[in-house]
Design brief:
The complex is a heterodimer of chains A (578) and B (404). Chain A has 578 residues and is α/β, with parallel strands linked by helices. Chain A is 64% helix and 10% strand. In chain A, the strands form three sheets. Chain A has a six-stranded mixed beta sheet, with helices on both faces. In chain A, helix 6 (127-154) runs antiparallel to helix 13 and helix 12 (254-267) runs antiparallel to helix 13 (272-284). Chain A starts with a helix and ends with a helix. In chain B, 48% of the residues are buried. In chain B, strand 2 and strand 3 form a beta hairpin. The two termini of chain B are 51 Å apart. The longest helix of chain B is centred in the middle third of the chain and has 53 residues, at 216-268. Chain B folds into two domains: 2-316, Up-down Bundle (ABC transporter transmembrane region fold); 326-403, P-loop containing nucleotide triphosphate hydrolases (Rossmann fold, 3-Layer(aba) Sandwich), CATH 3.40.50.300. The radius of gyration of chain B is 31 Å and the shape is elongated. Chain B has a four-stranded antiparallel beta sheet, covered by helices on one side. The model of chain B has no long low-confidence stretch (mean pLDDT 82). Classes of the chains: A alpha/beta (578), B alpha+beta (404). Chains A and B meet through helix 2, helix 3, helix 4, helix 5 and helix 9 of A and helix 2, helix 3, helix 5, helix 6 and helix 7 of B.
């Protein structure tokens, strides 16, 4: 099943693989010539032949056979490698394309190291099995087969005796092979755990450094590393005796051939020349058998990797239509929405939430952390599908709106704003490709980040790394806000977007936002209640449910939770002002 | 090529003993492998002498059994030591990198993003893990076994022995040629792989932004380029290496033919006996088998070297001085004296001096980007100051690994 998937991908390059196989077959047939040559020469020597030209002729034939073999196997390898590299490229592209169709939830819930591992490393690891498997496996089956046919023409008994070590070796190997697949899967698990530990450790190194005395993360990291090494070593240890027996016994066809062949010679049922020829041929079975045995490892590797790739490729997708739909206004409606992050999770993140966010108004979501505010924002943005109920935008269910059209409607700024490893200018321009430099800079001004960007040595052309370089949290947030402002979408969602911004700049941003949102639908998630008192509607969330909603004044009167939060907030503010 | 083995040797560190023992065991393993040749000779000798005694069959069988038994034992021990060395030297390196990161100033992570180090610790070192034992087993083991075989033959018939030596010499010559050729290829492949890792990580981590801004095409282009680049590099290396690898195999095979021809000539000239001639004919097939598989793994050798180089780069990362002892201070006043600090060229703190008396609360305020967090990072010694001094209880935070 798993292998089938890979074959499906490799099939795109079927003709290349077939060419490769044909070349491999030709190569191996030519590779037989030297064996004929030596057999002929040995027979001649034993017969007392002494014409130099005869021997020279056979030597030239052997040389020709070797050259031809080398050429064709070279061509075969080249072709199959090229096909394999293309297959790998295709696989990676498919995987990346799949990631963008997956629900964001699945993506966010999986450590990014896992995807990196599969797409970069595991696919790379398939090179050897894929590129070598076909041509070489065929060669390695073909050669012993041809040898055997040749042996049978000499003496069928010797042909059988040559094969004796194969079942013996296989029986020994079976004892070690029993749990191979399981062990291999275990090893993939262990090394995945290690990768995750490494990614986590390195990602959190700043925090770890701050608390270096506890060193718990470091211990976890080094344990995962040691576990990985120990697992592979112990695996080898448990299998090594069997493997050694196999690799020592199986290829040693001379073990039965020499004594038994000699006994036949004594009987007179085998001539000396025949026996020597058999010895030479029997050794020709050695090489291919050793090589063939290596494919056991490779086959299991392919199928495990294929399993991981398959898991990703066949995972759930957000199914969205391609054709844009007509939106009647931009009202956002939650209609009895229930949602859990994991299907088996008992407590839903949102339970029976119904809510209307009218077009052109400002709605604020507030409530304790974990109450479901961000979840709502992400559901509107189409990061996940709801379990029950509907979310409507402009009268259309979000599941019926193409992802692209939905994205065009919404500018979503969250707490963690990923900045790409590119210039600040390009990071902002991502809001609207094709925006001019002036527009980019205007957006930056509106978001209150123009000044600090200009103070950087390279200004707008400063490259901010994957983690955002050395920009402070507030600076990064403002860049993300500029990016969202540039987008100029009819619906704007600010999910704690100004949490790290200092009050001075927050005022700048709020002013810009209020200018920006004229006639637009704004959804704000905020802990600082003072920033949302002017909202048309404040929705108080609690434990995945709408606890209450209304204006600031209304809520102060009727919502106990809101009163509580407001008091706490005022208190905190007083504290700040001290 | 010796340099690569030296590199692996140095990289092995504490595992050197295992590698050395593994090589010694492999040497004896080679002797047991070569014993097959003795069994063949016993039979050939009897054939030519037309001796027909069952005892000859027993002798041959006994020699073969000893050969197999010896190889099972030696191979197991040798292999296990190699595997142990392969996995644990990499594990030690990983732990070493993790350890090192704890004392590397955060400033370092500017130039070498953590993504890069993560890539080295996972992907690059996994390459070492996979390739180093193979290189040691096949390349080094192949050489050792061929050497033993050659010694046997030199003693058996020196003229053929010399041809064998010549064959090995030519092999080593072509190997170093191939090696030079792959010298620029491997690091490029390395870079392409690391670039791929970074771009994949960026794509995965930035997916939410990509989705919200309909950037599907744009960000995918970057990762697509990386995929294309990886493909092109792989393809290029293969195209560069394949002709050489196979030319090498052809040359070795031609030496086998040369041995056949020389054997026949020597016999026809009456220089060697018939049994020797037959044995050498058989020998011509066995002699270069192991060298051939060694030759097929030169690429692995290069990959291993490039990977080790990459991993060792992290060794050159500057560390903060760690005196190592815990220092007890009676009071914990925090004091900044004329502190100057920059991230690269972006100066954050300019002659900052202030005091935080023990057991008091101090608030640091200011616009974002004004250096508030940086102040705290300097106290916690995420970085070291450029000029000036940060002290806790009068002790410079740089003077010790930790203050109690």
């Amino acid at each position: 099943m798993n292998r089938k998937l890979i074959i499906k991908f490799a099939a795109a390059y079927k003709s290349r693989y077939i060419c490769s196989v044909i070349c491999a077959v030709i190569s191996e047939i030519l590779g037989m010539v030297p064996y004929f040559a030596v057999a002929a020469m040995i027979t001649a020597l034993l017969a007392g032949k002494s014409e130099v030209l005869f021997f020279l002729g056979w030597c030239l034939a052997a040389a020709g056979g070797y050259i031809g073999k080398g050429l064709f196997s070279g061509i075969s390898t080249s072709i199959s490698h090229e096909a394999t590299f293309r297959t790998m490229k295709q696989l990676r592209r498919q995987l990346i394309a799949k990631l963008s169709r997956m629900p964001m939830g699945n993506l966010l819930n999986t450590p990014s190291g896992y995807y990196k591992d599969v797409i970069a490393d595991r696919v790379e690891g398939m090179e050897t099995p894929l590129a070598h498997l076909l041509p070489e496996l065929i060669a390695n089956i073909l050669v012993p087969l041809m040898m055997l046919i040749y042996l049978i023409t000499i003496d069928w008994r010797m042909a059988l005796i040559t094969l004796v070590t194969v079942p013996v070796g296989l029986i020994v190997m079976r004892t070690t092979m029993g749990s191979y697949q399981e062990k291999y899967e275990g090893s993939v698990r262990v090394s995945n755990e290690m990768t995750n530990a490494i990614v986590e450790y390195m990602g959190g190194i700043e925090v770890i450094k701050a608390f270096s005395q506890s060193a718990r993360s470091y211990a976890k990291y080094s344990d995962a590393v040691k576990d990985n090494a120990a697992y592979f070593y112990n695996w080898m240890k448990s299998a090594q005796w069997g493997m050694s027996c196999y690799t020592a016994i199986t290829p040693t066809v001379l073990l039965p051939v020499l004594p038994i062949g000699y006994v036949f010679y004594i009987n007179g049922s085998l001539t000396a020349a025949e026996l020597v020829t058999v010895i030479v041929l029997a050794m020709g079975v050695v090489g291919p058998l050793i090589t063939a045995s290596n494919y056991v490892d490779n086959m299991a590797r392919v199928s495990t990797v294929a399993g991981q790739i398959q898991d990703i490729l066949t995972g759930p997708e957000l199914v969205r239509p391609e054709k844009p739909v007509e939106l009647a206004g931009r009202d956002i409606i939650f209609d009895d929405v229930t949602f859990s992050y994991q299907a088996d999770q008992e407590e839903a993140a949102l339970e029976h939430v119904s809510l209307k966010i009218p077009q052109g108004t400002v709605t604020a979501l507030t409530g304790p952390s974990g109450s479901g505010k961000s979840t709502m924002a992400k559901l509107i943005s189409g990061f996940w599908d709801v379990n029950q109920g509907n979310i409507l935008i402009g009268g259309q269910n979000v599941q019926d709106i193409p992802q692209k059209q939905l994205s065009d409607q919404i500018a979503y700024v969250s707490q963690d704003n990923y900045l790409f490893d590119d210039t600040i200018r390009e990071n902002i321009r991502m809001g609207r490709s094709g925006a001019t430099d002036q527009e980019v800079e205007q957006a930056a001004k509106d978001a209150g980040c123009d000044k600090f960007i200009r103070s950087l040595e390279k200004g707008y052309d400063t490259v901010v790394g994957g983690a955002g370089g050395h920009l402070s949290g507030g600076e990064r947030q403002r860049i993300a806000i500029a990016r969202a402002m540039l987008k100029n979408a009819p619906v704007i969602i600010l999910d704690e977007a100004t949490a790290y911004v200092d009050p001075e700049n927050e005022a700048v941003i709020q002013e810009a936002v209020s200018r920006l949102v004229a006639g637009k639908t704004l959804l704000v998630i905020a802990h600082r209640l003072s920033t949302i008192t002017d909202a048309d509607q404040i929705v108080v969330m609690n434990a995945g449910k709408v606890s209450d909603s209304g204006s600031h004044e209304e809520l102060l009167e009727k919502s106990e939770l809101y009163q509580h939060m407001w008091q706490a907030h005022i208190g905190a503010k007083d504290g700040e002002e001290l | 090529m010796i340099k690569v083995f030296q590199k692996i040797w140095a990289f092995a560190g504490k595992e050197q003993r295992n590698i050395r023992n593994s090589i010694i065991l492999a040497f004896f393993n080679g002797i047991f492998y070569a014993m097959q040749f003795a069994a063949v000779f016993v039979i050939l000798d009897a054939l030519v002498g037309e001796r027909k005694a069952v005892s000859v069959a027993w002798t041959a069988l006994t020699i073969m059994l000893i050969s197999i038994a010896g190889r099972v034992i030696l191979q197991t021990c040798s292999q296990l030591k190699r595997v142990h060395a392969g996995y644990f030297m990499v594990a030690n390196k990983r732990i070493g990198i993790g350890d090192k990161l704890r004392v590397v100033p955060m400033g370092y992570f500017n130039k070498n993003s953590l993504g890069q180090i993560t890539a080295v610790t996972t992907t690059t070192l996994t390459d070492v893990e996979n390739a180093a034992p193979v290189v040691l087993v096949i390349v080094l083991g192949g050489f050792i076994n061929s050497l033993i075989f050659t010694l046997f033959v030199l003693g058996f018939e020196w003229r053929i022995g010399l041809i064998t030596v010549l064959g090995m010499a030519v092999f080593i010559l072509t190997t170093s040629l191939i090696e030079k050729r792959s010298r620029d290829g491997a690091p490029k492949r390395q870079r392409a792989q690391e670039n791929l890792v970074e771009k994949v990580l960026e794509t995965v981590q930035g997916m939410s932004v990509v989705k919200s801004f309909n950037l599907d095409g744009k960000s995918e282009r970057k990762v697509d380029t990386a995929i294309e680049e990886s493909y092109r590099n792989n393809s290029k290396i293969e195209k560069q290496m394949t002709p050489f690898t196979f030319a090498q195999q052809i040359i070795l095979n031609l030496f086998s033919v040369l041995i056949m021809g020389a054997t026949v000539l020597l016999y026809l000239n009456g220089q060697i006996s018939l049994v020797k001639a037959l044995a050498l004919m058989v020998y011509s097939f066995m002699v270069f088998e192991q060298l051939k598989s060694a030759g097929g793994n030169i690429t692995n050798l290069r990959i291993t070297e490039a990977s080790i180089d990459k991993a060792n780069e992290i060794d050159h990362v500057p560390v903060m001085d760690e005196a190592g002892s815990a220092i007890q201070t009676d009071q914990k006043d925090i004091c900044f004296k004329d502190v100057i600090f920059s991230y690269d060229t972006r100066r954050i703190l300019k002659n900052v001096s202030f005091n935080v008396p023990e057991k008091t609360t101090t608030a640091i305020i200011g616009p974002s980007g004004s250096g508030k967090s940086t102040l705290c990072s300097l106290i916690a010694r995420f970085w070291d100051v450029d000029e000036g001094q940060v002290t806790i209880g009068g002790i410079d935070v740089r003077s010790t690994s930790w203050i109690v």
